[in-house]
Amino acid sequence: MDKFQIKGPCKIKGEVEISGAKNSALVLLAATLLFDKPVILKNLPRVRDIDTMLNLLKSLGSKIILSKDKKIVKIQNKKKMKTLAKYSLVKTMRASILVLGPSISKFHKSIISYPGGCNIGSRPVNYHLSALKKLGMKYEIKQGYIHAKTNGRLNGAKINFPRISVGTTENTILAASLASGKTILKNCAIEPEIKDLTNFLNAAGAKIKWSGRTCSITGVKSLKEINYSVMGDRIEAGTFCIAATLAEGDLQIKNFNPKNIETELKLLKKAGAKFKTFENKIFIKGPKKIKPIKNIKTKEWPGVATDMQSQLMVLMCKANGQSSITENIFENRFLHVGELQRLGAKIKIKNSTATIEGNTKFIGAELMSSDLRASVALVLAAMVSKGKSAINRIYHLDRGYEKLENKLKKIGVKIKRLK
Description:
Elements: E1 3-8, E2 13-17, H1 22-31, E3 39-42, H2 48-60, E4 63-66, E5 73-76, E6 84-85, H3 87-90, H4 100-106, E7 109-113, H5 126-134, E8 138-142, E9 145-149, E10 158-160, H6 166-177, E11 182-186, H7 192-203, E12 207-211, E13 214-218, E14 226-229, H8 234-246, E15 250-254, H9 262-271, E16 274-277, E17 281-285, E18 296-297, H10 309-317, E19 323-326, H11 337-343, E20 347-350, E21 353-356, E22 366-368, H12 372-383, E23 387-392, H13 395-398, H14 404-410, E24 414-418
Helix pairs in contact: 1-2, 1-7, 4-6, 5-6, 6-7, 8-9, 8-10, 10-12
């Protein structure tokens, strides 16, 4: 099993190119099930979750043609597609559930295993099932599989989501795109990846409009051929911005829209970072002394992203004073705390709030990844630790960060991948 060895402390300088957004690419790939015509997607990130989704589409009957560098994919669906999404493919990735909406809308049936993914808290699929049921889907659960069907086309409906959920919003938009009549969705998630999805669908002929957290979808009978580029990954971009702030960095970060991390940039400015933003890049410099920040709270977009919480915690460990972070999205997202404590962090957890003492002198240690974002937090901490650290189980990290060690090496981090 691969692991990283990192020798710190490191200062970072140079240029980083951000990959396509994993969380956008996954839902765009699921959306290709709605098409009879070919779909070309560019700027695909080369991460494990994308391979899993491509294999899932292939198992359903999609013809997949990848460019040499695997950054561009052409997808053509067969006239008769399969509708069984097997446990062996679905077990490692939460986003697999996103094939349910388009499958039921296009093929009027789907059998899909309950999905897997990171162990960061309860993320029940009942919100997805409840919303799709309102569009006319019938389902039963047998032996860990969702058996779903519909009598012909789904029908538009008014749906008020009981809670803001990214996956539920995406799955329902996908299903409603080919439904008969109009669907109005209220209390939607409005993350940039969801707007990327609706931009993609509209460019292919869908009729989707936004007003705040309300999404109106007038169903169409079919979608046209499309060539589309996936947005840059805001979580990867935010991670590199934190790395620069943490390690007295001097970085140019390219190929993403800085507006997508405005909230996090405001926090980094409070911590002492200096930056200039442009249309698709940012120049950022880290301070000599990091300032503490009280009451950081994760929240749905446009709040602080839960996927940035563990990285911000590492930054606050090195701040000159006490900070606190409250996790409002997932109840099991402090698994990295124990590993940071092994490096010397002073962090106390009470309910959903972590209090961080600051002024930590990290000393290298053997570490274990627990989930995707926790993995990258350990990498950041190892970068500013004295001595060598080994980070085990980095397959979690490979699910969401493309060739991270190569990008870090180029900017001055002493990092090796060991088998």
